[in-house]
Design brief:
- The complex is a heterodimer.
- By secondary structure, chain A is an all-beta fold.
- Chain A has no helices and 9 strands.
- In chain A, the strands form 2 sheets. In chain A, strands 1, 3, 4, 7, 8 and 9 form a 6-stranded mixed β-sheet that branches. In chain A, strands 2-6-5 form a 3-stranded antiparallel β-sheet, with no helix packed on it.
- The termini of chain A are far apart.
- Chain B has no helices and 12 strands.
- In chain B, strand 4 (32-39) and strand 5 (45-52) form a beta hairpin.
- Classes of the chains: A mainly beta, B mainly beta.
- Chain A binds chain B through residues 1, 31, 33, 35, 37, 42-43, 45, 47-49, 52, 54, 84, 86, 88, 94-102, and chain B through 35, 37, 44-47, 49-50, 59-63, 95, 97, 107-114, 116-119.
Chain lengths: 108, 126
């Protein structure tokens, strides 16, 4: 079955840029989506269709995709950005959705 | 403002089934799918399946294909997910989420799960 691979953890100091990657064989032809989930809370959509940002999401959050890797970048990281981040994308035929395993972002 | 209101927590015995409902209020459901995502304690998100109410189109993850049913009731704007043959591994929070889409050239383009229910805790224990 199709898999999306994320690093389990990323650490960054406040004010720096955090980059979280998501690798999958179907990403060259399928969009990636990104969600943020803080402990005890519901996931929040951050990025859709690789690069689009829903209204209300700060411009500090951006997405990109190249080849088999999609990337979520968080500029000027703040303490409040400490959370789990999940990528999501469909399989190559667009039949079903898959989530990556999640990346825990720690703000040092 | 669209809201998804889920049913309350459930405690089930191994081998039984559970049905979780998700009522939509405040929006037009014609161009959305309702997706079901679960999260086991301390684990990540896992997509289970989805339904497009307007078309009655249902898709299930391979892992759950044999024991999950997702249906929708237009009269009450409610989507339900039933999972059977429960084991302790099914203990999780179950979320429903709205995923808007457009259809172009016969292909669906989704805008991401932008509204989520608060989750329903299902505990499977003997």
């Amino acid at each position: 079955s199709y898999e999306l691979t994320q690093p389990p953890s990323v650490s960054v100091s406040p004010g720096q840029t955090a980059r979280i990657t998501c690798s999958g064989d179907a990403l060259p032809k399928q969009y990636a989506y990104w969600y943020q989930q803080k402990p005890g809370q519901v996931p929040v959509l951050l990025i859709y269709k690789d690069t689009e940002r829903p209204s209300g999401i700060p411009e500090r959050f951006s997405g990109s995709s190249s080849g088999t890797t999609a990337t979520l970048a968080i500029n000027a990281v703040q303490a409040e950005d400490e959370a789990a981040y999940y990528c999501q994308s469909p399989d190559s035929r667009g039949t079903y959705w898959v989530f990556g395993g999640g990346t825990k972002l720690t703000v040092l | 403002q669209v809201q998804l209101v889920q049913s309350g927590p459930e405690v089930k015995k191994p081998g039984s089934s559970v049905k979780v409902s998700c009522k939509t209020s405040g929006g037009n459901m014609s161009t959305y799918s309702i997706d079901w995502v679960r999260q086991a304690p301390g684990q990540g998100l896992e997509w289970m399946g989805a339904i497009i109410p307007m078309f009655r189109k249902v898709t299930y993850a391979e892992k759950f294909q044999a024991r999950v049913i997702i249906v929708t009731d237009d009269s009450t704007n409610t989507t339900s997910m039933e999972l059977s043959s429960l084991t302790s591994d099914d203990t999780a929070v179950y979320y429903c989420a709205r995923d808007p889409f457009v259809v172009e050239g016969g292909k669906y383009y989704y805008n991401g799960m932008d509204v989520w229910g608060k989750g329903t805790t299902v505990t499977v224990s003997s």
